[in-house]
Design a protein that fits this description.
The chain is of the alpha+beta class. The protein is built from five helices and eight strands, in the order αββββαβααβββα. A hairpin with a 5-residue loop joins strand 2 and strand 3.
C-alpha cells in the first residue's frame, strides 16, 4: 500500500513539475545507424511474434504505458487518436513498462484485461519492456533514444515515428495524445508521402 502511495505521489509530482518531460541521454552512435523502427521485431501481449516491418509506410506513435500511473487515463486519449487517425495511416503501439515507480506490475493477461475493461483499448499492445538505458534495455528503446537523444523519464513518454520508420520527435508524459501539439505533429507526419 505504501509503495502504491509513493508511486502515485511521484506521478502527481511528475505532472506538476514536468518531470515526465523525458531525459536527455547519450546513446551509442551505432544504435540508430542504418536502422528504422521497422527493422525490429517484438512480441504482442498474447505472445505472438510481431515484425514491425508490418507497419512500414505508417506513422507510428510508440508509448511506454503503465496501469497504475497518474497518466494512465491517457489510455483513453491514445485510443481516441488511434480511432481518429488509423484509417489515414496512424498506428499507436503501447509498450508496458515497469521502470517508473513499479506502476506496471501485471502479467500480460492482466494488462490486456485492465486496458480493455477500463479504457476500451484496441490499439496494439506489446509485452513489457525496459525503457531505461543499461543492461536489459529494449532494442527498440535503444534505437529510439539514439535517434532522438531522449528517453522517457516516466510512464507515457511518446515517440512519433514517420512513415520512413525514423523518429520525428519525443513527447513527454504530460503531452496529451489528442492535444494540439501532438495532433499537429501527427497531421504533418500523415501528410508525408508513404514510403514504398
Amino acid at each position: 500500500m505504501l509503495k502504491q502511495l509513493i508511486a502515485s505521489a511521484l506521478g502527481v509530482v511528475s505532472m506538476a513539475t514536468g518531470f515526465g518531460a523525458g531525459q536527455s541521454v547519450p546513446a551509442p552512435a551505432d544504435a540508430a545507424k542504418d536502422k528504422t523502427l521497422f527493422t525490429f521485431k517484438t512480441t504482442a501481449l498474447d505472445g505472438s511474434a510481431v515484425d514491425l516491418q508490418t507497419y512500414k509506410g505508417k506513422v507510428v506513435l510508440v508509448v511506454n504505458v503503465a496501469s497504475k500511473c497518474g497518466y494512465t487515463p491517457q489510455y483513453s486519449e491514445l485510443e481516441k487518436a488511434w480511432k481518429e487517425y488509423k484509417d489515414r495511416g496512424l498506428v499507436v503501439i503501447g509498450f508496458p513498462c515497469n521502470d517508473f515507480g513499479g506502476q506496471e506490475p501485471g502479467s500480460s493477461s492482466e494488462i490486456r484485461d485492465f486496458c480493455t475493461k477500463n479504457y476500451g483499448v484496441t490499439f496494439p499492445l506489446m509485452t513489457k519492456v525496459q525503457t531505461k538505458a543499461g543492461a536489459g534495455q529494449s532494442d527498440i528503446y535503444a534505437f529510439l533514444s539514439a535517434a532522438t537523444g531522449k528517453l522517457p523519464s516516466w510512464n507515457f513518454g511518446k515517440y512519433l515515428v514517420g512513415r520512413d520508420g525514423k523518429p520525428v520527435a519525443f513527447y513527454g508524459s504530460g503531452v496529451n495524445p489528442t492535444g494540439d501539439e501532438l495532433r499537429k505533429a501527427i497531421e504533418q507526419a500523415l501528410g508525408a508521402k508513404p514510403v514504398s
